[in-house]
Amino acid sequence: MARKQRHERETVDDLAEAIRNRQAILFAGAGVSMTVGLPSWQTLIAHIAEELRIDKAYLAETDVNHLTLAEFYRLRKGSIGPLRSWMDRKWTLPEEVLKKSRVHALICELDFPIVYTTNFDRNLETAFALHGKPFVKIVNAKDIADIRDGVPQIVKYHGDFDDDESIVIAETDYLDRLSFESPLDIKFRSDALGKTILFVGYSLTDLNIRFLLHRLWKTWKGSGFEKDRPPSYVFMLRPNPVEEAVLRQWGLRVLTEPDCAPENALETFLEKLVRSVKATCAESGR
After folding, report:
1. Using one digit for the tens of pLDDT, what is the confidence trace for 93-120?
2. Which end of the chain is more exposed for a tag (fewer CB within 10 A), N or C?
3. What is the model's pTM?
4. Is 66 a catalytic residue?
């Protein structure tokens, strides 16, 4: 047990060192937003079912997910616009709620130079503004021209509520992204190849993210320089030996807080990471 705890502490310290040297990227998923009470995908499914008058008992008996339902919604309505508007209202939090979010405050404090997020909401951007941190929001290719040295980037990898066309919510959108050839995909490959990546707030049943992790591993493996790849990390709410083995094969280290309730695990982990970054700064005299 002591050896395992020492190994975990050293792993967090390695990650903290990369963050301190501004050689780390954060990739934030829906779990970050859900820490402040945002609806889950199940809420979205229930809303679509109610609006389209789909029998919820039927949905309970099938494996239809939110992607397929959103595709059906677009076919029925002719546009995802009304659904996007509903989501925008439900997924946007008042500033006073975000001010109290310790998870968002810790993300700001860690000061990643680039934050990728698959969340459509504006809560990360609002948190940055509330904590006095300038940023550049990148949703599409033209936004890349706005990048400025020393200014953090928030890259909306699956789109943004301000641009209906950018949102990856329906099944066709999702499958199109699996080509991994959009401008944001190309940017991600460029950003990620030489940096450590920390994934937080994800369910690893998310096929798009799993495919992204696999493609990154394949890129390094095909380069002939796999041993020189910077370490990357996935934070999981619960230990899962099966997932850990698969992800380790792809060159990712799994981090958990096994003694912490899942609803508090991310905050606890980020607190520990901030302390480690501050400790490495003190040791280096910065």
Report:
1. 889 999 999 999 999 999 999 999 999 9
2. N
3. 0.90
4. no
